[in-house]
Write a structure and sequence with these properties.
It comes from Mucilaginibacter panaciglaebae. There is one protein chain. By secondary structure, the chain is mainly alpha-helical. Helix 3 packs antiparallel against helix 4. The longest helix has about 40 residues.
């Protein structure tokens, strides 16, 4: 596709490419803020709704379960509707349960609202898809990593900010039960604002929207489902489950872990959980940059080796975090495994756009769904009444190491010769 940028100036808003770059990560950020807005308030919600450990675990599972299907659908909708319309519609529909979750007054209604809110996690696929439209292959991994990382940052900011919003509302004389409900109005409003901005200031492609350039009509052919037979796609889905899936789980349980294990109050626990999320400010981008450099020097095999390496270090860091006997040691270990986890996120999507250039939307959706599937499966460990959080983190660490070995033996080869031309105009094949 023409007019894709070959350089990334993150301080620029000039041109539709850079406007879209900033707006799409901001959209993802706001969705993450709403998606995990309840997580740092769970100590209060748990007490008010009298939730057991198993029920809390079920809400964690519900919060990521809906996103698995949503991400698969969103990848296809981006192909058909275009990322702009898909983003706006997801924001408008997704804001409804965010606004209304305050109506939950028992376990059943609360878990259903968390399930519905989870749909907005599919915003990630839009961000990666839309960024791939705007940037050339030489910078695509870096651009995707930065937009993904800055969007994921919403999970860290919400852990820090929502307890402060909650405390401010309590300060105005409202009860704890009222405060967490009113606090969720804030991310709902943010989603409506960004929906308007996305509609007004972005385009589907550097040349214009799908309808303006006849792109939709040209793409009405059937989806090439043969891509599902490519083992590399499933290896990447497992890799993403082992990094982003754990990020989702950690965003959900971190505050509770710090409260229960180290006896912190809700605000302090939210702060340290937020520090984990703040690593996205640079760490995911670092993984994408490293992936691009490895690709230029060693080809696709280099990208695969990098991903295997950072996954291995992530798994080792998780095991050390689980065994930390003090708050300070836990924080140090958390920052260590967070660095490699988020680099793994970036390194995974440094490979995704090149695996099947004719079906980037489908591949992005499958790999993205893999992340959520991992988050859901790991959530079962935290709902068990017989497995402690410490044991759960240990089991997850060993699982990540096993996935790193799978990635290591997967051959991420360069594009076949027949696909080189397609790769040079990657977004046209998205």
């Amino acid at each position: 596709m023409k007019n894709q940028l070959t350089k990334l100036n993150i301080f620029s808003l000039k041109g539709v490419q850079m406007r879209t770059f900033h707006i799409t990560w901001l959209m993802f950020f706001v969705c993450f803020f709403g998606w995990f807005g309840l997580a740092p308030l769970m100590p209060t919600i748990r007490a008010e709704l009298h939730l057991t450990k198993t029920q809390v675990g079920n809400t964690i599972i519900a919060s990521v379960a809906a996103t698995i299907i949503a991400r698969l659908l969103i990848g296809k909708l981006c192909d058909v509707w275009g990322p702009r319309k898909t983003a706006v519609r997801l924001l408008l529909i997704g804001s409804i349960p965010v606004f209304l979750v305050g109506l939950a007054h028992d376990y059943t209604s609360f878990v259903l609202f968390r399930l519905a809110i989870g749909v907005i996690g599919a915003s990630f696929v839009i961000t990666q898809f839309h960024t791939s439209m705007m940037f050339a292959p030489n910078i695509k991994g870096t651009a995707n990593a930065i937009t993904g990382g800055w969007g994921n940052l919403g999970g860290g900011v919400t852990n820090m900010v929502m307890p402060l919003i909650f405390a401010a509302i309590v300060g105005f004389g409202y009860t704890n039960a009222e405060a967490w409900r009113y606090a969720m109005v804030i991310p709902g409003v943010m989603m409506l604002i960004i929906a308007f901005v996305y509609y007004k200031f972005t385009k589907d492609t550097p040349e214009g929207n799908y309808g303006e350039i006849g792109y939709t009509k040209a793409k009405n052919g059937k989806t090439d489902w043969s891509a599902l037979s490519d083992w590399r796609i499933w290896a990447l889905a497992m890799a993403y489950a082992a990094c982003f899936g754990i990020e989702l789980t950690f965003d959900n349980v971190a505050s509770l872990h710090f409260v229960d294990t180290f006896h912190l109050n809700q605000s302090a626990a939210g702060f340290w959980a937020g520090i984990f999320g703040f690593m996205n400010l640079f760490a995911r981008a670092l993984g994408g940059i490293a992936s691009d450099k490895a690709g230029r020097k060693f080809g696709m095999r280099g990208k695969g080796l990098l991903l295997a390496g950072v996954l291995l270090l992530e798994g080792a860091g998780l095991i050390l975090f689980a065994q930390a006997g003090s708050l300070m040691m836990a924080i140090i270990c958390m920052l260590t495994f967070a660095l490699f986890l988020k680099m793994s996120n970036g390194a995974t999507y440094g490979i995704v756009p090149f695996v099947n250039t004719k079906n980037v939307g489908l591949v992005s959706g499958i790999v993205g769904a893999g992340g959520n599937l991992g988050g859901m499966l790991f959530g079962f460990l935290f709902k068990s009444s017989t497995i402690t959080y410490v044991e759960a983190f240990t089991y997850i660490g060993y699982t990540v190491i096993a996935v790193s070995v799978i990635v290591l033996i997967t051959r991420f080869q360069k594009q076949p010769a027949g696909d080189v031309a397609v790769d040079s105009k990657l977004a046209g094949a998205v």
